[in-house]
# Entry
Amino acid sequence: MSRLIKILKPLTPIMMITISFGVLGFLAAIAITTLGSIAIGDIIGLNMKFSFAEATKIIIVCAILRGILRYIEQYSGHYIAFKILAILRDKVYKALRKLAPSKLETKEKGNLISVITSDIELLEVFYAHTIAPIAIAILTSSVIAYVLYTINPYFGLIAVVFYLIVGALIPILSSKLGSDAGFEYRNEFGNTNSFLLDSLRGIKEVLLFGEGEKRLDSINKNSDKLNEKLEVIKEHEGLIRACTDITIMIAILVTLFAGVELFKSNTIDLGQVIVAIVLLASSFGPTVALSNLSNNLMHTFACAQRLFNILDEVPAVKEVEGNEDLNMDFIDVRDMEFKYNGREEVLLKDINLNIEKGDKVAIIGESGCGKSTLLKLIMRFWDVNKGSVEISNRNIKDIPTKALRKSQSLVSQETFLFNDTIENNLKIGKMDATEEEIIEACKKASVHDFIQTLPNGYKTNVGEIGSNLSSGEKQRLGIARAFLHNADLMILDEPTSNLDTLNEAEILKSIKRESDDKTIIMVSHRKSSTSICDKKVYVKNNTLEFN
Ligand SMILES: Nc1ncnc2c1ncn2[C@@H]1O[C@H](COP(=O)(O)OP(=O)(O)OP(=O)(O)O)[C@@H](O)[C@H]1O
# Structure
């Protein structure tokens, strides 16, 4: 809670406006009913502070003010809330950027989507419907308790006791009883999202292996679990509401009883008794808002917890700031050792590799021996545990991340295409690429002719053709993207695994032709692919062998 409040600091002045107008708004509303009782008292001949006409005039003013004050309170309150949601989203995206790519690889995407969308959205409850209402309830109740005290100290005392029960005791007990339910619900919600997303992604496998019924069953079970959690929360909400209402009724009865006793003992007159009862009965609005709040708070804190977990996650590598360019000359891997967190065995050890500018290096080895990992270490997706990776005599850990990314391009086993036009997908390689440059890159990657056959050529949206693109076509688009990026170091992780021999030969020729002065590091199982390389390195027994 304190962490959520800290984020609010820059918006304190607006929060003050929300609170002040909220208090005045509630006082205006309470004044309307109380003055109503005064007006009636005057009509039936009781000794009241205001005449019927005076009370009516004040009621009209209060009614108009109530609307205006409420509007300003809600407007400023929600302004704060949505401003903060924007700040929080920004923080999460920044955190995700820092966690990418290595730490995000292992995160469940459905859960991440839940945090970014619904979890952050729910924090609106805290900022627009929690902090201000608490302050408003304390201030409004204090004013009313004081007014009741001036009528008679007993009334003031009764008010304080019942305000505390409704506004503090019930919410605290309620949140203690139900704090787990909110967290469990949010977690279950994230898990259900993840499972659904997973099922959609793997729909082909699900259908192919007849897993549909089983998956559907699991989805239904997940939904049932979600409903069960929600039921617990709703039952809890109902119980709290009932307790609150009963407490208010008791408060009114106690005031009535005290009023009658005080009237009988001639301490106060009948008009004062009526005003005290109406004033107390109509003043629970702000405190009731607090008792309802605890239900939402359970959700809110669970959401905040999940959000802070992401913000607090330490990235696998620390980003290096800076705008300088990198002169990609030679790469030196020295006595390097690496082990994945959570894995027992050291995956790569005593790794020494020297790559000169313009070298074409093939990395060969059995599946799972760590070839892709070696590439990832040269791209600094992970930091090495021992030794170093150096580029032009600079430790990769000191090279500005932007410069490092600019100097390297990657074609991986699976090219990811965004739901955007082919042109924009390619432009990721070079944001300001001209049409000619894009066509040139595609010709080199042997994908230009294919793009020409699409309904809108380069302007065709990948989403429209989506899964109709073959893996080879996707791969060639990935290679075109890398050509466009035109980096000094081309990292190719099985770039031709999805291509037929004809296409493979054409692309390899193109890669060789286009990368005369460039350094290439290629992982491939195919001899035909590694034939363009002049150096071969074998990953064996967790280390490198050179022949
Ligand atoms: N993020 C990760 N966390 C933990 N272990 C990982 C992670 N990524 C890869 N591994 C493990 O590290 C080992 C090496 O993986 P890597 O992808 O580098 O192998 P590879 O030689 O490229 O295999 P392939 O030829 O099949 O692509 C594997 O056992 C893999 O399960």
Notes: The chain has 20 helices and ten strands.
